[in-house]
TrEMBL record:
One of its GO terms (biological process) is D-alanine catabolic process. GO terms for molecular function: D-amino-acid dehydrogenase activity. The keyword Iron-sulfur does not apply. SUPFAM superfamilies: FAD-linked reductases, C-terminal domain, FAD/NAD(P)-binding domain. It is an enzyme of class 1 (oxidoreductase). It comes from Janthinobacterium psychrotolerans. This is D-amino-acid dehydrogenase. Keywords: Oxidoreductase. Belongs to the DadA oxidoreductase family.
C-alpha cells in the first residue's frame, strides 16, 4: 500500500504529538503552524501541570450559581462578556446542560482513562524526548481547600484511595512549607502521587527537533491555513498563505482556529476560547517556592515550580477570541499569589501571559473522524492540552489506521 500523506494543521503540543504518533505509524507527515515558532499559542506558558489523576470538568452541579458569585468578586476566576455571536450562546446552552452531577461523573471517569493513557504515552516518549529536556519533575499534586463543606465533598468523591492522602491543614504545611501563610485559612488538603510538572513550550521545541529528524516527517511549514477545500465529501486541499497544499488525510489540531477552519468544510465544532492567564516569576535563593504542584481549589489558582521559576496560572475569561493581556487580571493574579505564598518568588519581576484554551462544553476533547471522509479532529482539550496530548495522539493514530481504540471513546468522539 502506498504511504499515506497527512497534513496536520497546528503546531502546539496536540499537533506535535499527533505528528509524532502518525509518523511512527508510517504516515508521511507535514505539519503546518501559522506562528514563527511551535508551541507559542495556548501551549506556551500554561499551568505547567501534568494532572493525570485529578481532573475536574468545568461543568458541574452548582457551577451556574457559583459563576454568578465569581462575577461579583474583584479577583474572581470568571469574567464574561456577551457577544453577538451565536456560537457563544450555543456553547453556553450546551455547557449548562452538562452542569449536573451525573454528566460530571461520566466525563470525569472518561478523562481519568485518558489521563492514564497519556501518562503511558509520555513514558513511551522518554527515549525520544528525555524528561530533562523540558524540566519534568514527579512533583505530586496538592489540592488545598478553604471551605469545610467543599473539602468534605472532595474527600467523599469516589476515587482511587491508594492514589491520594487526605491531610489536615497542619499536615499540608508540613508536606509543603510554602503553604505556611495559608494554614489558618485552610480546611484541609488532598495530596495525589504521580502528578508531574514540566515546561510545555520546552517539550514542544524538543519534540519538534526530533520530528525534523524522523524519516516520515516530510515538512514542518510556517504558514497560515485559510480554508479547507471539500469536493465530493472529501478534503481536496487546504488553502494556505503558502498556496494550496494537498494530502491523503488531514488533521485539525489548531486550537480555537480549528473552529473556523472546520466551518469552511461545513462542520460545527462545539469549541469556545476560554482565556487564561499566567505569571512566570523568578525564584531567588532565599525564596520559599513550592516543590509540590499546588491547586488552590476555591481561588482556582495553580502553582508549579519549573526549574528556577514559579508558574502561577488562573482565570477563565469568556470574552471571545481576544488573546491580549488585560492588566487588571494580571494585577489580580499577583494579589492572589502574594496572599497565598508571599515568599515564594519575586512577583515584581514576573512576566505575564494570556492564551485562548479551546474548550468543549463538557471538557472532553474531540478525537477522531469528522463527517468529511478524510478529515480528522484532535481538538478541544481546554486547559489540559499538555496533560492529554500524548493520549489523544495515540487514539488518533489508532483510529486512522483502522485499529480499535484502547478504551470505549463514548463522548470523546466528534459525533457525540
Amino acid at each position: 500500500m502506498q504511504q499515506q500523506q497527512v497534513i496536520i494543521i497546528g503546531g502546539g503540543v496536540v499537533g506535535l504529538t499527533s505528528a509524532w504518533w502518525l509518523a511512527e505509524a508510517g504516515y508521511k507527515v507535514t505539519l503546518l503552524e501559522r506562528n514563527e515558532q511551535v508551541g507559542i499559542a495556548a501551549s506556551y506558558r500554561n499551568g505547567g501541570q501534568l494532572s493525570y489523576r485529578y481532573v475536574a470538568p468545568l461543568a458541574d452541579a452548582g457551577v451556574p450559581l457559583k459563576a454568578l458569585q465569581w462575577l461579583l468578586q474583584k479577583d474572581g476566576p470568571l469574567r464574561f462578556r456577551p457577544e453577538a455571536d451565536w456560537r457563544q450562546w450555543r456553547w453556553l446552552a450546551s455547557f449548562l446542560r452538562n452542569c449536573n452531577a451525573a454528566s460530571n461523573a461520566r466525563t470525569t471517569a472518561k478523562l481519568l482513562q485518558l489521563g492514564e493513557l497519556s501518562r503511558a504515552g509520555m513514558a513511551q516518549l522518554e527515549p525520544t524526548v528525555p524528561p530533562e529536556a523540558y524540566a519534568w519533575r514527579d512533583a505530586g499534586k496538592l489540592i488545598v481547600y478553604r471551605s469545610p463543606d467543599v473539602f468534605q465533598r472532595a474527600v467523599a468523591r469516589p476515587v482511587s484511595e491508594e492514589a491520594r492522602l487526605v491531610l489536615t491543614p497542619a499536615q499540608a504545611v508540613q508536606r509543603e512549607p510554602a503553604l505556611a501563610a495559608l494554614q489558618g485559612s485552610l480546611a484541609g488538603a488532598i495530596f495525589t502521587e504521580g502528578e508531574a510538572v514540566a515546561d510545555c513550550h520546552a517539550f514542544c521545541l524538543a519534540l519538534e527537533t526530533r520530528l525534523r529528524q524522523h524519516p516520515n516527517c516530510a515538512l514542518l511549514l510556517k504558514g497560515d491555513a485559510h480554508q479547507l477545500i471539500v469536493r465530493n465529501g472529501k478534503v481536496a486541499g487546504v488553502e494556505t498563505s503558502l498556496g494550496l497544499l494537498g494530502a491523503d488525510q488531514y488533521v485539525l489540531a489548531a486550537g480555537i482556529q480549528s473552529r473556523d477552519l472546520a466551518a469552511t468544510a461545513g462542520i460545527y465544532l462545539p469549541l469556545y476560547p476560554l482565556k487564561g492567564y499566567s505569571l512566570t516569576a523568578p525564584v531567588r535563593a532565599h525564596d520559599l517556592a513550592p516543590e509540590i504542584s499546588i491547586t488552590d481549589f476555591e481561588r482556582k489558582v495553580l502553582y508549579a515550580r519549573i526549574k528556577s521559576s514559579l508558574r502561577v496560572a488562573a482565570m477563565v475569561d469568556m470574552v471571545g477570541a481576544d488573546a491580549s493581556i488585560t492588566p487588571g487580571r494580571i494585577a489580580g493574579l499577583k494579589r492572589l499569589a502574594r496572599e497565598a505564598m508571599p515568599q515564594a518568588a519575586d512577583y515584581d519581576q514576573a512576566t505575564a501571559w494570556a492564551g485562548l484554551r479551546p474548550a468543549t462544553p463538557n471538557s472532553a476533547p474531540l478525537v477522531g473522524a469528522s463527517k468529511v471522509a478524510n478529515l480528522w479532529l484532535n481538538v478541544g482539550h481546554g486547559p489540559l492540552g499538555f496533560t492529554f496530548a500524548a493520549g489523544t495522539a495515540r487514539i488518533l493514530a489508532d483510529l486512522m489506521a483502522g485499529k480499535a481504540p484502547p478504551f470505549a471513546l463514548d463522548f470523546l468522539q466528534p459525533r457525540r
